[in-house]
Amino acid sequence: MKPVKVGLLGLGTVGGGTAVILKRNAEEIARRAGRGIEVDFIATLDADAAANLGIENVRLTDDAFAVVNDPDIDIVVELIGGYSPAKELVLKAIENGKHVVTANKALIAIHGDEIFAKAQEKGVVVAFEAAIAGGIPIIKALREGLAANRIEWLAGIINGTGNFILTEMRDKGRSFDDVLAEAQELGYAEADPTFDVEGIDAAHKLTILSSIAFGIPLQFDKTYTEGISKITLDDVAYAEELGYRIKHLGVARRTEAGVEQRVHPTLIPKSRLIANVNGVMNAVLVKGDAVGATLYYGAGAGDEATGSAVIADIIDVTRTLTTDPENRVPHLAFQPNELADIPVVSMDEVETAFYLRMTAKDEAGVLAEVTRILGDKNISIEAFIQKQPEHKGDDANIILLTHRVNEGDMNSALEQIEALDVISGDVMRIRVEALS
Length: 436
Ligand code: HSE
Hints:
The chain is of the alpha/beta class. The chain has helices at 13-24, 26-33, 49-52, 64-68, 86-95, 105-122, 138-145, 160-172, 176-185, 194-197, 200-214, 233-241, 303-320, 366-376, 407-418; strands spanning 4-9, 37-43, 59-61, 75-78, 99-102, 126-127, 151-157, 224-225, 244-254, 259-269, 281-288, 292-299, 351-360, 381-387, 396-402, 405-406, 423-432. α6 links the parallel β5 (99-102) and β6. α5 runs parallel beside α6 and α6 (105-122) packs parallel to α11. The relative contact order is 0.13.
């Protein structure tokens, strides 16, 4: 059988990894796919990139549309990232009847519904395993491996850069900026690193996971998003003292009111496996009603780790080239006409426990005022630490762990606490999840 011809858009970190693996493992991949898979045409702005990677006998261009419009190309692999021109390129490829593989989480989270509808209409596949958690086959697991289950919740460390920063802060006391610079050098961070540290990248990924888990449309605008940029070395140390680790978590949970979709720093008990996922590694914990809890762990970024997921998709597409479009695995796991209208609940309705850190005057009655406000809202305290100031007269740090409480009630309690004369600055609050 004739080999399948792949057109690569982008030869950066992931594009390079993909091309190198396809060449190195060509024989093994062909045995799995049932036919050869060849990179035939590459769009890159770096004229030397292919030669530097030892990639020969390919056509090169600096015009990505030339690849998308080339009649010889069967599968377009979009590894440019960002919203535009990635969206135009993907839609054009679909219009030209080509299958698409992409690692672009931003594109899928924001424009996925439109892209999948177009792909459905044209009978082509848009595959995006590499968009989430790098090399971990989490889409495959959720969409196929767990297809028997009613998914109850999932929680994931799905941004390697953020996890790397938090790990280095905890283990080595390194500063936030220093670790971020290293993540950028290693090629883990997004082109705009605020996407990593402010949670946008994780929110893109969580939006997609939530849609696939619960069979709902992609709703990035309803994903609550909070980054890690306000976490201090003190918070990391106090969490440890209380028996917790701070992780930047994406949580999607089915409740009676709807679906929770949220990304924020979270205290997790140290004893949980997922609390021990360190460095650039990612992990996703999924709770299904039949299977129970399952955990997926691996490299969340990097050239060959992400290339591994890209190629798994290329192989899947190659195998389905001859399958009737109606009988393929649906893009969002559920049949397109079966997506549910379950609302995404507002953050005010979400219930979690909380870690609170506040800076207070070191004088009698301060704690009583704080606990009175919490008590009035029925917020009960589970643990308490007071860090005395080094010098008499300086402010003290008060750290509280609460039991589970409605976010709306916590917000109004915090407003009152921050208004107290004896409290200075904002109260730092981090949600706590037992994940049991
Ligand atoms: N910037 C992303 C991360 C890359 O750090 O996880 C992989 O999506």
